[in-house]
Amino acid sequence: MRHDSDDHHPDRLLTSYAVISGVVAAGLLILGAFVDEQVVSAAFVLAGLVLAWGWPVLLGLPRPSTSSLVLVAGVVAMAVVDLWSDPDDGMRWLTAALAICLVLAFLHELVRTDGRARLVLSIAGAAFGLGILASGAFFRQAMTREHGDAAIIAAAGATALGLLVDFVCHRRPALAEWALPVALLLGAALGLVIGVSSSAPWNVLLVTGLVSAGVAHAMRRLVASLPAAAEPASQLAIGSSGALVAGLVPYAALWALIR
Question: How many C-beta neighbours within 10 Å does residue 2 have?
Answer without folding.
Answer: 6
